[in-house]
Amino acid sequence: MEFRTQILPKELKHKINYQKPCISIGSCFATNMGEKLLASKFNILINPFGIIYNPVSIANAVIRSTQCQYYNEQELIYFNHKFISLDHHGEYSSADKNDCLDKINSAILKTHTTLKNASHLFITLGTAWVYKHIEQNKVAANCHKIPQKEFEKTILSSEEIISELQKAIYECRKINNSINIIFTLSPVRHLNDGFIENQLSKSVLHFAIQQIISRAENCNYFPAYEIMMDDLRDYRFYKEDMLHPNETAIQYIWEKFCQVSVEKKSVAMLPKIEEIRKALQHRPFFQSSEEYKKFALTSLQKIELVKKAFPEICFEHETAFFEEKLKG
Question: What is the model's pTM?
Answer without folding.
Answer: 0.94
